[in-house]
Amino acid sequence: MYKQVATAVSFASLVLGQQIGTLTPETHPSLPIEVCTAPGACTKEDTTVTLDANWRWTHATDGYTNCYTGNAWNETACPDGKTCAANCAIDGAEYEATYGITTPEEGALRLNFVTAENVGSRVYLMADDEKYRLFNLLNKEFTMDVDVSNLPCGLNGAVYFSEMDEDGGLSRFEGNKAGAKYGTGYCDSQCPRDIKFINGEANSEEWGGEDGNSGTGKYGTCCAEMDIWEANMDATAYTPHPCKVSEQTQCVDDIECGAGDHRYEGMCDRDGCDFNAFRLGNKEYYGPEKTVDTTKPFTLVTQFVTEDGTDTGALKSIHRFYVQDGVVIPNSETVVEGVDPVNYISDDFCEQQKTAFGDNNHFATIGGMAAMGKQLEKMVLVLSIWDDHAVYMNWLDSNYPTDADPTKPGVARGRCDPEAGVPETVEAAHPDAYVIYSNIKLGAINSTFTAA
């Protein structure tokens, strides 16, 4: 995964804070999941979702004055990060009206791309009203249905796991009074700097606006990330990203954050070890009317296989297959010179792929599958839809780098035009885009799906 800023989306003056506001009630939309021990032996959990704090309105605790407008902090309320957190309150969300987040049926979540002035969204699965639902993925499979039939080039319907705090940082950071209930404590392997509050303080130091509605600060927020599903109609990838740290951790400079020329010196493996069928040589596997036909829904299954077949064993490999129209579709095999014809991610696959593509194997430097496995024991589920202000999603669905020879192994990642993902273009052309996630299940290997 080559995205530069994982959360580079427009917020339209909808911003975050750390105190709790009382102007809008917070009611989490229902998104139940199932936990399975064997085929047909599944138990329902009454889980919900909460909106990420970065999308929420933040105002002065004593009224309606914005703490952040456009891409600028309110200097009176926010002379420094700690004072800002004390002065600003985060409020509840109007999920459907403001953000286009709906639950069209039980067990389904629809995320609309543009709703009025809001662009994109990110939500987290909740175990109860105060805590995120933690997942141990080792020796398990994670299954869900997806519908990307209305998700064009340049967009990303992303489902992934991040090693966030169960309570959103509420207990670790005294400045954070809102916690998981209000979607605080985000982190990922890109160590994003566009998160407005980190560790209970405003990220206002050295803040600069990238466009009219968002910006970045001095600090970033890092943790391991397992990308289950990054996709639109024309491209998809799944990617493990281990980190040197084992919990949400603030990075304080370019080196720690892995920014710019320091990409391979930071806390996390920002590239990851991706499996993208198109990039790996099978250009007819995924897309409209391809082997996996993206014009209609399908089930994706991801299995985390351990060396000894136990829930505490070392992670050996990550497998993927699909079920569509009752038929199990194996993942595509690699068709790249120098890479064994496999259809799963392992240390050997990553080493061969990185060598064939001329990429830095930072995945191995960080610790590879063993490191990723340790971090899969306490993950939070993230579901989102976003556009890319940094490199226009070219790392997923087009040629990247865009000035490289597309015939060179690893450059072509999909069929999309490199300009299709320019935010101004895709937001104007496809405001009605959306993605639907449904029927989420976690369970023992081969327990969560059925086929004809």
From TrEMBL:
GO biological process: cellulose catabolic process
InterPro entries: ConA-like_dom_sf (IPR013320), Glyco_hydro_7 (IPR001722), Glyco_hydro_7_sf (IPR037019)
Record's protein name: Glucanase
Signal peptide: 1-17
GO molecular function, one term: cellulose 1,4-beta-cellobiosidase activity
Keyword field: Carbohydrate metabolism, Cellulose degradation, Glycoprotein, Glycosidase, Hydrolase, Polysaccharide degradation, Signal
Family: Belongs to the glycosyl hydrolase 7 (cellulase C) family.
